[in-house]
Design brief:
The chain contains 16 helices and 20 strands. Helices cover about 35% and strands about 15% of the residues. The longest helix has 21 residues. Bound molecules: 6-diazenyl-5-OXO-L-norleucine (DON).
Length: about 525
């Protein structure tokens, strides 16, 4: 089964599974297909994380972008670098990430896995949700790049054919010659030329030096389930384990899922996990990440500070972080194959359509991931800007991510595969799906459809999807500031432990398909 935002890509993945490929083969084919068919987030010009697990095996492919050698610690500090500029792009990681995953787990020829993407790039019919996303981005005055406009700039309707001919050529080159061709051959030349023309920082040497990394996932437990989670440079796994460890000190099920009591408890847990995230998390190759963050002991101490009737002021948790006065897009897919091999993959261009810059001649959209670094050294604000050392810009460093691909196992068998886009809300979207399934026994569809909630320490405000009547009033009475907002896109697979049937839930907040056989 493959569940993802883009129906065409879901079917590409199932095609690979039906032809005898495993979940990682399918994931590679889906990732390249979405680089064509979901251009706002699917990518070869961005980066991401792939979590793979089966039985007692679990591993993690980190293909997060890095800062180019010309990047500096204060490059975003005066607010002059535009979020959609050449300078906002990190060194892309997706192609090396897919090659690494293929080397470790692939069973099908590399070229076969790229073939559907090459074909789609020559032309495919857009559906209504994609037409709307492109029309919206073209109406935005911040979409300026001439090459981007040449490819996407017209009024789209369902059924129109989107052709990305330069991208087709680049994908065909990657299919024929592999990752080195992309990182040192013509696309590297084209990217450097694009950067020089647009005042960007990435050079051929940055591309040649880029490495995807295999890392050990974080493993935690929650009420008898084993949680396989994303390690740094994701902040997601750490925050999820910390949150679940805190929740274990309580019994959320005492109250209905969308009762003020449970929503309050979750918000308090989220607030505390995000406070630690701000102080400690960054690229583990540059920043020492303390081991205690995911320990049960640390969670017990944090849980003891939660008042079950009243909101804690975020400011009171700041501790060593001085608070100053002050001020997307990603996509996730989940795959399980007939042998129980699970892939949970989240990858991103950062904001929707990334920097909105297409590399001339190479046809791919560049990320604007550099904006995930802490912008102003030392300045952490009540509005949610973070300025701690752990995630300051440095050449070669990976920017901290909230992407949280997650796999849950029970007695050594896969139980749940999930993840989401949504910037910092990703972590809490995943937490909601976990609580809904693990505590409240919801099916995949119920867990994905249920209203979500987010608290990220600062701003000191809870964001909620529309829930039961009176909920917001009751939370305000407990001392919470509350806003309502849509949250996430969590394409999820749950394996019913009793029937062993796969429940695929495409998150219809955006678009999607659960495809299986
Ligand atoms: O890695 C991160 O945390 C962000 N670049 C993700 C951005 C995102 O999810 C925006 N999409 N909705």
């Amino acid at each position: 089964m493959v569940v993802c935002v883009c129906p065409i890509a879901a079917d590409v993945g199932v095609g690979v599974l039906k032809a005898g490929g495993n979940a990682v083969d399918a994931a590679i084919a889906v990732a390249f297909a979405e680089a064509v068919t979901w251009p706002e987030a699917g990518n070869i010009g961005g980066g991401g994380f792939m979590l793979v697990a089966n039985g007692s095996m679990a591993t993690f492919f980190d293909y997060r972008e890095t800062a180019p050698a010309l990047a500096t610690k204060t490059m975003f500090a005066d607010g002059k670098v535009d979020f959609r500029s050449h300078q906002s792009a990190g060194v892309p990681g997706t192609v090396r990430g897919m090659v690494l995953a293929h080397k470790r787990f692939g069973t099908k020829p590399w070229k076969d896995l790229l073939a559907p993407a090459v074909k789609l790039a020559a032309g495919f019919p857009v559906d209504a949700p994609l037409a709307k996303r492109i029309n919206d981005v073209m109406k935005d005055p911040k979409t300026m790049n001439a090459e981007f406009k040449r490819i996407f700039g017209r009024e789209w309707k369902a059924g129109d054919t989107l052709k990305q001919l330069e991208l087709a050529k680049t994908l065909a080159g990657i299919a024929d010659h592999g990752a080195n061709w992309f990182y040192t051959g013509p696309p590297a030349e084209q990217l450097e030329a694009e950067m020089k023309a647009g005042g960007g920082l990435i050079r051929k040497a940055d591309l040649a030096a880029y490495e995807a990394k295999e890392r050990k996932p974080l493993i935690g437990t929650y009420r008898g389930y084993e949680i396989v989670a994303a390690p740094p440079p994701s902040s997601g796994g750490t925050a999820i384990l910390q949150s679940l460890n805190m929740l274990e000190q309580f019994d959320p099920k005492k109250h209905p899922r969308h009762s003020p009591e449970t929503v309050h408890l979750l918000a308090e847990v989220q607030r505390r996990a995000f406070r630690d995230r701000a102080e400690f998390l960054g690229d583990p190759d540059f920043t020492k990440i303390p081991a205690h963050l995911t320990s049960k002991d640390h969670a017990k101490k944090l849980a003891a500070t939660i008042d079950l009737a009243k909101a804690t002021k975020s400011e009171s948790l700041a501790g060593a972080i001085p608070i100053a006065e002050s001020g997307g897009d990603t996509t996730h897919f989940s795959i399980v194959d007939k042998n129980g091999l699970c892939v949970s993959n989240t990858y991103t261009l950062e904001m929707n359509f990334g920097s909105r810059i297409v590399v001339r001649g190479a046809g791919f959209i560049l990320n604007n991931e550099m904006t995930d670094f802490n912008p102003i050294p030392g300045t952490t604000t009540r509005t949610g800007k973070i300025g701690t050392n752990a995630n300051l810009v440095a050449p070669g460093k990976r920017m901290l991510s909230s992407m949280t691909p997650t796999i849950v196992r029970k007695d050594g068998k896969p139980y749940l595969v999930t993840g989401s886009p949504g910037g910092r809300t990703i972590i809490n979207t995943v937490l909601c799906v976990l609580v809904n399934t693990l505590d409240y026994d919801m099916t995949a569809t119920e867990a994905v459809d249920a209203p979500r909630q987010h608290h990220q320490w600062f701003p000191d405000r809870m964001s909620l999807e529309k829930g039961p009547k009176d909920l917001v009033e009751k939370l305000k009475a407990m001392g919470h500031a509350v806003t309502e907002a849509r949250q996430g896109d969590a394409h999820t697979i749950r394996i019913d432990p009793k029937t062993v049937l796969f429940q695929g839930a495409a998150d219809m907040r955006l678009n999607g398909k659960a495809s299986g056989y």
